[in-house]
Amino acid sequence: MSWERLNKFLRDEEGQGMTEYILIVLLIAIVAIAAFKYFGKKVGTTVKDAANTLSDEASKATKEGTK
């Protein structure tokens, strides 16, 4: 490989934007996975409690509506 071809290869920026985009997406994915691991049980419990409350209120409303 000649020095001219090597210099051209090193200066070539084609595909740089896509690589940066992939790195950003990868970083976001890693942060999201870490957040789910850390907050997973707390969020799951909160969502379950909210679902139970909504279910109870819907049942009450249905019973009151049929009277």
Order of helices and strands: HH
Structural class: mainly alpha
Mean pLDDT: 85
Share of helical residues: over 70%
Report the principal-axis shape. rod-shaped
Radius of gyration computed on alpha carbons:
27 Å
Largest sheet: none
Number of helices: 2
* Tally of structural domains: 1
Query: Can you tell me the residue ranges where pLDDT is under 50 for at least 5 consecutive residues?
Result: none
Range of strand content: under 5%
Distance between the termini: 88 Å
Number of beta-strand segments: 0
Short description:
The chain is mainly alpha-helical and 67 residues long.
Model description:
- The mean pLDDT is 85.
- The chain has helices spanning 3-11, 16-65.
- It has one domain (14-65).
- With 67 residues, the protein is mainly α.
- The chain contains 2 helices and no strands.
Keyphrases for this structure?
67 residues, mainly alpha, 2 helices, 0% strand, rod-shaped
